[in-house]
């Protein structure tokens, strides 16, 4: 082989190796992005609908027409009450401009709550809907229905919850759709209110992929009225391929933006929550 042909072969081999390395790196990055993307989408959806209920609960127990749901100053939202066909309707209006709330989230628009029966009465229901409501520039739409199931064996009030709604992500990133059934247990009343949540359902991502979501009563999600993130608990979700992912927010309730995603292979990713 002549020297020029040898050098040409070496150059070609080098280019091929570089291309393969680049392709492998891109594939790894894409795979990691997909894996963490499922987790991030589920976290955003879960907390968005949970927060809406926390606001609704506070609105229901607030005396007067001002909801003090902000970091400092006077009430951020106004509350109006009406009666329609025997039902009590509460509208919680954050206005048309963003308001910084005590949990660090910005809100605008309206949350509308329709009560059939008193909130604290076993068997009563209330339905939460939205009118141009945004949280951190994500628009929340759809319906959340809550039924008071009375008290469990520990004397804690708990609720059955159904969700059929969407989160239209800010900056044109697409829409997340959630169809869920949840059990929400009121484990600590006061400032803050703390709830445990478990259940099943499906999440449809912005690209159309549908994911099955499961949260067990043994490792429920822990949410607090004064924290913008889920504080503890584990979510298992199943991809269309049948493979599962586990997202762990921690075993002890801590208000931070961290979670750990575990793949079937045992590989883990640290997730920063939005």
Structure commentary:
This protein is an alpha+beta fold and 274 residues long. The protein is built from one helix and 16 strands. A hairpin with an 8-residue loop joins strand 5 and strand 6. It is globular and about 55 Å long. The protein starts with a helix and ends with a strand.
Poorly predicted regions are 3-33
How many strand elements? 16
Rg calculated over all Cα atoms: 23 Å
Mean pLDDT across all amino acids = 82
Strand proportion, as a percent range, falls in: 35-45%
- Please give the count of helices: 1
- The first-to-last residue Cα distance is 59 Å
The SS-based structural class is alpha+beta
The largest pleated sheet is described as: 16 strands, antiparallel
Which sequence of SSEs, written as H and E, runs from N to C? HEEEEEEEEEEEEEEEE
Amount of helix? 10-25%
Query: How would you describe the shape?
Result: globular
């Amino acid at each position: 082989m002549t020297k020029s042909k040898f050098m040409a072969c070496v150059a070609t081999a080098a280019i091929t190796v570089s291309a393969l390395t680049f392709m492998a790196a891109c594939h790894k990055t894409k795979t990691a992005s997909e894996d963490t993307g499922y987790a991030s989408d589920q976290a955003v959806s879960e907390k968005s609908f949970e927060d809406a209920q926390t606001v609704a609960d506070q609105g229901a127990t607030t005396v007067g027409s001002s909801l003090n749901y902000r970091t400092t100053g006077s009430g951020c939202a106004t509350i109006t009450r009406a009666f329609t066909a025997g039902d009590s309707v509460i509208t919680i209006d954050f206005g048309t401009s963003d308001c910084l709330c005590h949990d660090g989230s910005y809100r605008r628009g309206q949350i509308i709550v329709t009560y059939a029966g008193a909130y604290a009465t076993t068997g009563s229901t209330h339905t939460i809907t939205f009118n141009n409501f945004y949280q951190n520039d994500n628009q929340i739409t759809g319906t959340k229905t809550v039924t008071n199931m009375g008290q469990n064996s520990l004397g804690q009030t708990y609720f059955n919850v159904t969700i059929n709604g969407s989160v239209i992500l800010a900056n044109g990133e697409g829409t997340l759709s959630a169809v869920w059934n949840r059990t929400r247990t009121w484990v600590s009343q006061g400032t803050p209110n703390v709830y445990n949540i478990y259940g099943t359902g499906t999440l449809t991502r912005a690209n159309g992929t549908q994911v099955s979501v499961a949260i067990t009563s043994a490792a429920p999600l822990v949410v607090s009225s004064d924290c913008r993130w889920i504080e503890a608990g584990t979510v298992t979700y199943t991809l269309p391929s049948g493979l599962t992912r586990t997202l762990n927010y921690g075993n002890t309730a801590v208000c931070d933006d961290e979670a750990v995603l575990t793949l079937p292979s045992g590989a883990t990713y640290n997730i920063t929550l939005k």
